[in-house]
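Forum: Protein Structure Q&A
Topic: Joint prediction for protein chains with partners

I've read a bunch of threads here and the consensus seems to be that you should model interacting components together rather than docking separate models afterwards. I'd like to see that in practice. Below is the full input, 306 residues plus whatever partners are listed. Could one of the regulars post the assembled result?
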Amino acid sequence: MNLAEGFQIVSFGLLAVMVIATALGVVLLPNIVHSAFLLAGVFLSISGIYILLNADFVAAAQILVYVGAVNVLILFAIMLVNKQEDFSQVPKRWIRQVATALVGLGLLALLTTMILITPWPLSSVSPAVVENTLVTIAEHFFSDFLLPFELASVLLLMAMVGAIIIARRDFIPEANLTDEDPSTTALTLPERPRELTGVPNSK
Amino acid sequence: MQIQLEYVLILAASLFCIGIYGLVNSRNAVRVLMSIELMLNAVNLNLIGFSNFLDPGEIKGQVFTIFVITVAAAEAAVGLAIILAIYRNRDTIDMEQFNLLKW
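Posted by a regular:
Agreed with the consensus. Here's the joint model:
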C-alpha cells in the first residue's frame, strides 16, 4: 500500500465517521439551530467523499448549491419560524421511536446484506481516462441528457414562482373585507396581517 | 487497500436509514425537511459511487447526481415556503398539530 492509497483510505474513513456523526446530530439534537449547522457539516463531508470518488465538479456543485443555498434557506426558515415553545408531551412516544429505530436497523441490515452479496460488475477502465469531468458532463448535457437539462430549468422556474406565491403575504385593507363580490375575492388571499414576533397576538 | 464500492454503498445506506429515522420521528417540521435532504444526499452518494466504479468512462452517474441536486434544491425551497405558510396560519410548526386530515 503506497502513500496515495493510504491517504485515500484514511481520508475516506474520517469523512465517513464525520458524515455519520453529523447526520446523527441532525436528527437527534433538540436544538434546531445546532441541527442546521450540523447539516452543513454533512454536506461538506459528503463533498469530500465526492472528491475521493473522482467527482470534482459535483463536489463543487454540492458545496455551492447545498451549503450555499439550501442550508442558508433552511437557516432563514428556522429564523422565521422561531417560536420558543416546548412541544406538548405526547404520551407513549417512545413506541414510535423504538419502532422506527428497529425498522431503520432492519433496512440497514437488508441493504448491507444485499450490497455484500451482489457481484458488482466492476469496470476495469481506469477513472483516469476522463481527463476533465466538467467537459464530459457538459458533453452529456448537450447530447444525450439535453431533455432533462431543459426540463430542469423549467422545474427551477416553477419552483421559484411557486415558492414566492405560497410564501407571500397579502395585506387586505379592512374596508375591502366586507365586500363579498366573488369576482374580486377570487384572486386575493383571505389573510389578515399578523403582528410580527414579540407583540402578543390579541385575537 | 483501496476504497471499495461496498464501503461507499454501506455508508450511503446508513445515511439513508438515519434520514428515515429523522423523517418519522421529528416534531419540528424544518427537521423533517432536513431529514429529506439527508436521504437525497445518500442517494447522490450511491450514484457517485456507482459512477466511479462501474462507469468511469462516461460518468453518467455524475450527470444524474447534478439533476438530483437541482430537484432537491427546488423541493427544499417549495417545502420551506409551505412551512412558512402553515406557521402563519396555525402559529406552530409541531408536526403533531398538523392533524386536520386525520380521520
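Residues 198-203 of chain A have pLDDT under 50 and may be disordered.
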